[in-house]
Write a structure and sequence with these properties.
single chain; alpha/beta; two-stranded antiparallel sheet; 8 helices
Length: 239
Amino acid sequence: MSFENEHALVLFSGGQDSTVCLAWALQRFGKVETIGFDYGQRHAIELAVRPRVRERIASLDPAWAARLGEDHVLPLETLGRISETALTRETAIAMADNNLPTTFVPGRNLVFFTFAGALAYRRGAKHIVAGMCETDYSGYPDCRDDTVKAMQVALTLGMDRRFVLHTPLMWIDKAGTFALAEQIGGKKFVDLVVEETHSCYLGDRSRRHDWGYGCGQCPACQLRAAGWDKWTSVSGNRK
């Protein structure tokens, strides 16, 4: 579906998923802006790669360049201060007693959507695009489809304006995300995702793997590596 005359805001972290979502939005919407959040994350390198990813995406397609609008980075230090998690503290990445990984930041996506909605309201954007996924994720409850649908209702009611939340990755795994990247932008876009985006929870960009940079051991790296292996084994795109 195309929304050539409509305006979208993409939750853009600089990671694989949000980068594919950004390209997905640039295919569909007449104007696309991006929003990122600095909440004291341990892998703050993701904030550093964002401008380069945006620049390279714009270089792939003149139409994308024309549609890509402003970038907004909001400081949310308070979220990091109240979150005793492995993404905001130098603590071990493991399963907690509540059967959720210690990388789960309670309320993070709810806060993100609230601020994104407030910005979208001011910028005149009806559509909000995000990379949540219930198929291949770490068990985060705020990535579930039901959570996203509830947030859409809450934002629409709370601001008395119709919002539509799009999650194009919700029902596909990481292999499917690589496949979608190729479908959207071909090999050049897949190469961009591999080379420029960041997923590693430890913020490690010193080690280059076939699937990109990262420690290779944290859950985010393992998911990305497994997705790459599955996709390349099926598609024949292994380098």
